[in-house]
């Protein structure tokens, strides 16, 4: 049986795709749909309810992505050490992943502030009205920025993952190993 990383890559890629796609759909679809509720006091409740339902799925997707990434890293530890450029790319991906995790955690924290006050009047999920209490309004204003940071960061992870796939081409591996052995090549 061939030694492949199909399960690890699937966990990594499906988890990341779910994390990216779910955050983008929530920003556009869920928040947009909630803003159409006629009663301004329903808008926050609807958006909060949707995000609360999404949270366990998102947590599972993130866990799958991290588990898959860890397995891929272990499987490629020789290339990370021996092929020029791979360790730098891996570090950049780790930093991006940390930033995406921090943004996701902070968005959840801000969302909880909104969930704790489900029946306040708002213009939209991340837009306060003149009647929105100050604490909820502040959370909404911060949430508007953080929620868009998540698909930006996870989208960047998709791109860097594709770049790392290109680094596995035979010609790239050979060139990277030669550059490591013979500096200046």
What does this structure look like?
The structure is a single chain. This protein has 6 helices and 2 strands, in the order H-H-H-H-E-E-H-H. The longest helix has 36 residues. It has a two-stranded antiparallel ribbon. It has one domain. The protein is mainly α and 185 residues long. The chain starts with 5 loop residues before the first helix and ends with a helix. A hairpin with a 2-residue loop joins strand 1 and strand 2. Helix 1 packs antiparallel against helix 2. It is elongated, with a radius of gyration of 21 Å.
Write the layout of secondary structure elements.
Elements (H helix, E strand, L loop, with lengths): L5 H29 L5 H36 L1 H6 L3 H30 L6 E3 L2 E2 L5 H33 L3 H12 L4
Antiparallel strand pairs: 1-2
Index terms:
185 residues; mainly alpha
Distance between the termini: 37 Å
Q: Structural class of the helices, strands and pairings?
A: mainly alpha
**Strands, count:** 2
Order of helices and strands: HHHHEEHH
| Beta-strand residue percentage | under 5%
Shape: elongated
Main β-sheet, spatial strand arrangement: 1-2
> How many separate domains?
1
Uncertain runs are: none
- Which percent range fits the helix content? over 70%
| Sheet having the most strands | 2 strands, antiparallel
Q: Using the CA coordinates, give the radius of gyration.
A: 21 Å
- Mean pLDDT reading: 91
Number of helices: 6
């Amino acid at each position: 049986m061939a030694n492949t990383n199909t399960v690890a890559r699937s966990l990594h890629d499906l988890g990341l795709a779910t994390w990216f796609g779910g955050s983008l759909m929530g920003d556009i679809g869920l928040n947009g749909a909630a803003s159409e509720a006629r009663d301004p006091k329903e808008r926050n409740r609807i958006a909060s309810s949707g995000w609360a339902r999404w949270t366990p799925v998102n947590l599972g997707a993130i866990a799958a992505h991290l588990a898959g990434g860890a397995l891929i890293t272990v499987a490629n530890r020789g290339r990370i050490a021996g092929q020029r450029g791979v360790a730098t790319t891996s570090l950049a991906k780790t930093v991006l992943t940390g930033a995406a995790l921090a943004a996701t955690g902070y968005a959840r924290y801000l969302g909880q502030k909104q969930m704790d006050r489900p029946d306040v009047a708002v213009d939209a999920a991340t837009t306060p009205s003149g009647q929105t209490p100050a604490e909820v309004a502040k959370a909404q204003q911060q949430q508007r920025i953080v929620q868009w940071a998540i698909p930006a960061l996870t989208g960047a992870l998709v791109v860097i993952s594709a770049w790392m796939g290109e680094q596995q081409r035979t010609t790239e591996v050979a060139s990277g190993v030669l550059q490591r052995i013979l500096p200046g090549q």
